[in-house]
Amino acid sequence: MKIGLYTDSLPDLTFEGALDWISSQGIEAVEIGTGNFSPAPHCRLADVAGGGEAAARFRDAIAARGLTLSALNCNGNLLDPHPRRRQKAQDTFYRTVEAAQHLGLDTVVTMSGCPGDPSGGEYPNWVTCTWQAEFVELSERQWEEVIAPFWREAGRFARERGVNVAIEMHPGQSVYNTRGLLRLRDMAGPNLGANLDPSHLFWQGMDPLVVVRALGRGGVLHVHAKDTRLDPQEMALNGGLDLRPTSEVAARAWAFRTVGYGHDAGWWRDFVSELRRQGYDGVLSIEHEDRLMGSREGIVKSVDFLKPIALQTLAEVWI
Question: Are the C-beta atoms of residues 192 and 220 closer than 8 Å to each other?
Fold first, then answer.
């Protein structure tokens, strides 16, 4: 597998400045944000989505530094009940798919989206409980009236352009677990799968190895290398649904950490092995969101940690 980097981890650098630094660290691939939740997208989507010389310059800048492009990322709430936010998020998604087509790229990373409720409010409503009964009704109405119509069309749009859609299972979005992802895939088509980010699964009590196995061959389209440390005392006391700000690292039940600072090398070896058993031999795209470590330090440590794990041979996987 290749070691990559989601360039949102370097928001202070320009596109070419980020590419220069990335290539100097022995990283082999880049995943580049195009907007929505991206704080500093390194892709000028309005230019690249049109193809032509702008797309060629973008592609050439990456290739000239010996890097490959693993994905474009347009994570956002594509089903936001606020009309202007929803339109902007969906426009970014569709233009990102068009950009991927012009770049000869087969993977776009995004999220499933989270609608509101039928009353017409402008806030997303994330249903996580079957009691009260109204929650069940709301969830099914979200799926039938909002999620399914959008994703049937979005899946078709991407499929016709030769692009796969890698959904990041993320709390706060309609698809946050395996069951939801498989339900969405049934609606959108086989070109929809997972951007497997284990960091969001740990604190929900999920086992990423079991998830990879359940998704099977072709179910994992892209992978984020990001870790989470669980605080056993706080998890036992208050559980993983922690509403305290992520900046309160010392107090929270869990926190995003640099790869290897939440789970050891043995776990990550098992993770990479399971990915390869299910046919994934792509990029491990580092996403740095560790508030206890600077981005460059965390990225370098992640690369050093992952390199010997990513280089294991197929023979080693099957022993």
Answer: no
Half-sphere exposure of 127 (CA within 13 A, CB side): 18
Tokens 């509101």, residue located = 116
Give the CATH number of the domain where residue 79 resides: 3.20.20.150
DSSP 146-176: IIHHHHHHHHHHHHHTT-EEEE---TTSS--
Measured CA to CA, the distance from residue 283 to residue 221 in angstroms comes to 10
pTM for this entry:
0.96
Cα–Cα distance, 267 to 180 (Å, whole number): 25
Residues 163, 168, 172, CA angle at the centre, nearest 5°?
135
Question: How many domains does one find in the chain?
Answer: 1
Beta bridge partners of 76: none
Name the nearest CA neighbour of 31 among 67, 77, 60: 67
**Cβ burial 52-80 (10 Å sphere, 16+ → b, else e):** eebbeebbeebeebebebbbbbbbbbbbb
Confidence (pLDDT) at 319: 46
Cα–Cα distance for residue pair 162/100, rounded to 1 Å: 9
CA dist., res. 87 & res. 251, Å (int): 37
Cis geometry, peptide bond prior to residue 132 (ω within 30 degrees of 0): yes
Under 8 Å between Cβ of 221 and 215: no
Segments forming the whole domain that contains residue 189: 2-318
Unique residue bearing structure tokens 């530094």: 65
What is d(CA 123, CA 250) in angstroms, rounded to the nearest whole number?
30
Give the residue with greater pLDDT, 127 vs 316.
127
Please list, residue by residue across 271-309, b when 16 or more beta carbons sit within 10 angstroms of its beta carbon and e when fewer do. Answer: bbbbbbebebebbbbbbbbbeeeebeebbbbbbebbeeb
- Give per-residue pLDDT as tens, 96-128: 999 999 999 999 999 999 999 999 999 999 999
In this prediction, residues 188-213 reach a mean pLDDT of 98
